[in-house]
Amino acid sequence: MKRLTLGKLTLPAYSFLAMAFMLIPIVYTIVFSFNDSKQRTNTTWQGFTFDKWLGVCKNPDVCQALGNSIFIGVVSTLIATVLGTALAIGLVRYRFKARALVNLALFLPMATPEVVLGAGLAGLFFNAGVGAGMTTVIIAHVVFCLSFVVVTVKARVQTLDPVLEEAGRDLYANPSQVFWKITFPLLLPGIFSAALLSFSLSFDDFIITYFNSGSVETFPKYVYVLAAKGVPAEANVIASGVFIAAILIVLISQINGAIKRKRMLGK
Amino acid sequence: MAFAAFGSSPAKEHKSSTKSSKIVLALLLPGLVYLGLFFFTPLMSLVITSLEVPAASYAPGAYEYGFAWENYVEAFTTYLPQILRSFFYATVATVIALLISYPLAYFIGVKLRPRPMLQRLMLVLVIAPFFISFLLRTIAWKQIFSDGGAIMQTVYSLGLMDRSQHFLGTDAAVIFGLTYNFIPFMTLPLFTTLERFDVRLLEAGSDLYASPARVFRKVTLPLSMPGIISGTLLVFIPIAGDYVNAGQNFLGSSKTTMIGNVVEFTFLQNQNYPLASSLSVMLMAVIVALIGLYVRSSGTEDLL
User: Fold this and answer.
1) What is the pTM of this model?
2) Helical ranges in A94-183 per DSSP H
3) How many folded domains does chain A comprise?
4) B2 pLDDT higher than 50
């Protein structure tokens, strides 16, 4: 009997330990965003302060980099989400001969190491005489965000009940009405998750950006360049702020979904 | 596959009449053209560049079309240690990530089924590292394991390591960082597979007098294979091409250089585009071969 309870506790205990391990660097980064570091480096604890949070943009470089990263993230997410949602619907809803090939074509970008894609695109732009800058970064980001959007939206399309769309057609809705009034609203949570994922991938990308951004500074590039000398606490503030915002959005949407499900089951 | 965890469990496939080829084309074409232009063309361009020869001017970064397959021989012989090291790191880190992730994914996907709220919360925590800068997380580990940090001071005072030795810059430090950074990519596909796992099969196994270990080996493990394979691909591939963890300003040193570091250096600093390209093409060839093996055994439907 005793052995049984002990055995039953091992897995939960292990899981919580593993989770705690995963969270260590996150907690560390957030804690050091409150570090009262006097120099640019932020390696030893100097005391607690809110100053870095209140005056992030006193460090104009980091704010400029943040602005660029947000702009790149938003534009590439918009493009990747539109292209990816269309691909996901096409793949789940229609049977065609080249399906296997299309699946493979969408998986390959996810499986390509970033240096390979980064160097390949940089070479292409170089040969075509296109200077590296904002446009080339956005083009590159859409490539690796696209497949992740397809995967996420595809999961949602698969759970859609086609009966709902048939009902719409039976009530004489034309195809575009069926799409915008029935399919699209039902897909929206999936599209939203996909956009969030795409934005985080773009915002955090370093390797592909490094090869294709020329003189455009992004937040990861800023951190990378300073990694040798020491990264200022303002960078921790920005990373922590983005993290907290993203986690809040995810939690709210998860809770929202759970409430909706309960309501539907209740009826 | 991997990120299906964001949505919910898959439903049955539905049949649609397939006359609507115009709609399919309209839905698929824009995305596929985009990938053609900015994914497949760059790969082709890498292959062409990898065979180029120095231009007559011998100016740095100037190359012209050629068929110098010797570039591959040079890349392979010069950088064999880095190539071997990359695949060694990737193999060890993938195995450790699998060993750490499997029990966790089993707990979340099977044991937490009666508690959907807790299950959702744990999933959010698994993906939490995605939302904070990858570089800063790695720098956090670097500072945690620095010689002056609490961990290394304890190790030194216990006499486990000599004060002249360091953890940072070693193979172990780089493998540690790689494993840490890619664990979520292993846990998510494992979770998606285990979430659908029918626990009644376990009862059936033990009803037939199989020991728990035998049930695991004969029932649970084979049924989790799709998750194990896709997790392995999603972790092994990016690790083989990573160069941040192994970088000297992060967890590595000059003794931990990987293929990614070499490609970055030869491409961006030395501007030896043919050499960097032939290394990239070799890396990509190994990866395509691995995916080919997967597709032969499982088809393409579960890839995404």
Assistant:
1) 0.87
2) 99-111, 114-127, 134-159, 162-170, 175-178
3) 1
4) no
